[in-house]
Amino acid sequence: MTDGLPQGSNDLIQYPSQTPFTSPTCRLHPQTTCPAFVALRMLSRLEGAQPVLVTDAGCFYGLSFINHFYGARKSILAPAVGTAELSSGKLQEAALAAIEEAARDPNVSLIPVLSLCVSETAGLVEELLPRESHGKPVVLIRMPSYAVHAHPDAKDIVTAVLLRRFADTASPTEEKTLVLLGEVFAADPLMIDGVLRKMGARVLVTLPGRRIDEVRLAGRGAAVAALHPFYRESLTVLRERGVAVVGGAPSGAEGTAAWLHAVGMALELDEQLVEQVAREEEEKALRFLDAQPLKGFTVLVSGYDGNEMPYTRLLVESGAYVPYLSTSIAQSALTAADEAWLRARGTEAVVYRKTFEDDQKALLHWKFDLAFSGTTMLASYAKHHGIPAVYFTNILSVRPLFLSGGMIASISTVRELLNRRHIYRQMLDFFKE
Fold it and tell me: Of the candidates 167, 179, 181, which has an alpha carbon nearest to the alpha carbon of residue 240?
């Protein structure tokens, strides 16, 4: 390989294994922290929002701890909810008192009420909660973990509730504007906006955001692009308002060209101009990909946040063999095109609502040169077998992904990781002796 990159374990892309991969039936290990954590994190980051968490003391302690671990820098209000409060039937009154306390704070402009398992099973009545207190909007968001499968689902629920309550539909639609849905690297929306402006369009706003005004603005977009394919409820809200929906993401050469054409169609842009810009971006990507920088390497991709598919497409276009892809999101119409594209190019197993056991079995089913893991458990398991492994969110999600610039940044990171394979093998040999 060029630039000192070592050869992969396979000179050519592998053919499907003779024994098909099947998911195990074991479901013993916990698969995620409570999804309410993500909802709380999103709401804590909203400027002027004072979250009220209606749950038992144990959940409140755990969720507030992990929320502050991720730099929330905001107090969380919660009524005292224990056996005495539940048996006395005072849950509703306790929630109302917490809302009243939040509303008295002059720095608060929004009160999201996050209702978890205990309050839901105890019967917190939505109709008895105020829609506003002291002139400040109150929004109930139901987040019982037994009904919310994973972190992406929690993001979708919060975004959909805020859109349904605050999206501005009274003002005229801002023509040729695109709303982006997805927690993406900060540079990605800027790069997308730069390319769209060449086509006569622009990015209006990216959600989830830090201000409720961004949610309001999203209601005036002419189209919405779900860069991560799990925002089903959020897209339903916008569809009801007549907003056109664009699926997929501008990832890799082929994916970028297809996405730009889809945006052009949704926004009714000049076809010749769209074709010109799409061709330019595709050619930039192809010039990099022609070297096939990852040819001969086998990579496992396992994540939970919905961006695994565009990353996998990028790896495949770079020449890597990716036989296994797993994700915590659910299979849907938003994932169909990417799944079909990947399966046609050698990805044998696409596992939705994955478990640790799925990933563990896959890691031993194929001979991998590198593993991208959505959990530290799988990363540790891979390293135990001498396979370089990195935590997906901390290594890939903190870099640009989209268009030609994001592609080069992401693939360069992968090449750097593959350069370190010998270190893992030396480490494995050392502990075997």
Answer: 167
DSSP-assigned states of every residue in 80-110: --SHHHHHHT-HHHHHHHHHHHHHT-TT--B
Domain boundaries, the chain: 36-148, 174-287, 292-432
What is the value of pTM for the model shown? 0.89
Q: Most distant CA pair in the chain: distance in Å? A: 71
Report residue 26's pLDDT band, with 50, 70 and 90 as the boundaries. Answer: low
- The CATH architecture one would assign to domain 292-432 is 3-Layer(aba) Sandwich (3.40)
* 36-148 to CATH, choices 3.30.160.20, 3.30.56.10, 3.40.50.1980, 3.20.20.70: 3.40.50.1980
The CA-atom distances, in angstroms, between 432 and each of 370, 383, 385, 428 are 21, 13, 11, 6
Tokens 């209606």 belong to which residue? 54
* Residue 264: its H or E element: helix 252-266
Model pLDDT, residue 25: 65
